[in-house]
Design a protein that fits this description.
The strands form two sheets. A six-stranded mixed sheet has the order 2-10-9-4-5-6, with no helix packed on it. The protein has a four-stranded antiparallel sheet with strand order 1-3-8-7, with no helix packed on it. The chain has 117 residues and is mainly beta.
């Protein structure tokens, strides 16, 4: 039974930063590529960033164009934890953020709210 628990969201002003965390259980975390996805009110789920399960020397990250250069995805396999560092936040980043085991967000946690206003 996969469980993904996100935290770290909040209310911030434009230009500020937040760091999201996601603790995974019920899976061999180190073997899974992981993603962050988000959903704004009235909109579809949007993929934000992904990171491979490869050893750190070969690990690759990818980003949606809308967040490239501002967000950084990372992982700590020893802690079964996924992170998303979000800098230079914009109002359009306001959404419920989920970590997921697939880019579509089919298997995801309960989410953490990020509000930029």
């Amino acid at each position: 039974h996969v469980q993904l628990v996100e935290s770290g969201g909040g209310l911030v002003q434009p230009g500020e930063s937040l760091r999201l965390s996601c603790v995974a259980s019920g899976i061999t975390f180190s073997r899974h590529d992981m993603s962050w996805v988000r959903q704004a009110p009235g909109k579809e789920v949007e993929w934000v960033a992904g990171i491979t399960s490869l050893p750190s020397l070969f690990r690759a990250a990818s980003y949606a164009d809308s967040v490239k250069g501002r967000f950084t995805i990372s992982r700590d396999n020893a802690k079964d934890t996924l992170y998303l560092q979000m800098n230079s936040l914009k109002s359009e980043d306001t959404a419920l953020y989920y970590c997921a085991t697939d880019p579509s967000g089919r298997t995801r946690g309960q989410g953490t709210q990020v509000t930029v206003s």
